Amino acid sequence: TGAGSGLGRLFALEFARRRALLVLWDINTQSNEETAGMVRHIYREMAEEAAAVAPGVAGDGEKDVLPHCNLQVYTYTCDVGKRENVYLTAERVRKEVGEVSVLVNNAGVVSGHHLLECPDELIERTMMVNCHAHFWVT
């Protein structure tokens, strides 16, 4: 979750380098698709490098964890602060991709305000995304 920017994007890129099949969630469709484009670029580079060396062996001499043709990235727009949105998106992932084996639940709200300067709505939103969403997504 939170794959569209910041640490979520960095986690996605690092998992891509480790040949993971990725399912990216973010509330912002455009930034999530930008991350997916970066991931696809990494996959293409790895495929080109693998084609340049002996079949079945990566450039560092280690066996490939997954064949390069199986590397995929899926994107979903999801507001993890809304329980029903999480449940619907999770069901779509199960149907379209399969079961998830590793969850990096990274989405978060950072207000940048002192507590006493935060409007009630922002406090509620922060709690829904930074606390409740962990239970719903898991």
Provide tags for this entry.
7% strand; mainly alpha; 138 residues; Rossmann fold; two-stranded parallel sheet
Describe this structure in words.
This protein has 138 residues and is mainly alpha-helical. The chain has a single domain, classed as Rossmann fold (3-Layer(aba) Sandwich). The chain has helices at 6-17, 29-52, 83-96, 120-137, and strands at 22-26, 73-77. It has a two-stranded parallel sheet with strand order 1-2. Helix 2 links the parallel strand 1 and strand 2. The longest helix has 24 residues, at 29-52.
Secondary-structure blueprint of this entry?
Blueprint: H1 6-17, E1 22-26, H2 29-52, E2 73-77, H3 83-96, H4 120-137
Helix pairs in contact: 1-2, 3-4
Biggest beta-sheet profile:
2 strands, parallel
Uncertain regions spanning at least 5 consecutive residues:
none
Structural class: mainly alpha
| Elements, N to C (H/E) | HEHEHH
According to CATH, the fold-level topology is Rossmann fold
Distance between the amino and carboxyl termini: 11 Å
- Assign the CATH superfamily: NAD(P)-binding Rossmann-like Domain
Q: Tell me the name of the CATH class.
A: Alpha Beta
Helical coverage, percent range: 40-55%
What number of structural domains do the residues give? 1
Strand share of the residues?
Answer: 5-15%
Number of strands: 2
Outline, from the CA principal axes?
Answer: elongated
State the strand order across the main sheet: 1-2
Number of helices: 4
Average pLDDT, rounded to a whole number, is 90
Cα Rg: 18 Å
Named CATH architecture = 3-Layer(aba) Sandwich
GO cellular component, one term: lipid droplet
InterPro entries: NAD(P)-bd_dom_sf (IPR036291), SDR_fam (IPR002347)
GO molecular function: oxidoreductase activity, acting on the CH-OH group of donors, NAD or NADP as acceptor
Keywords: Oxidoreductase
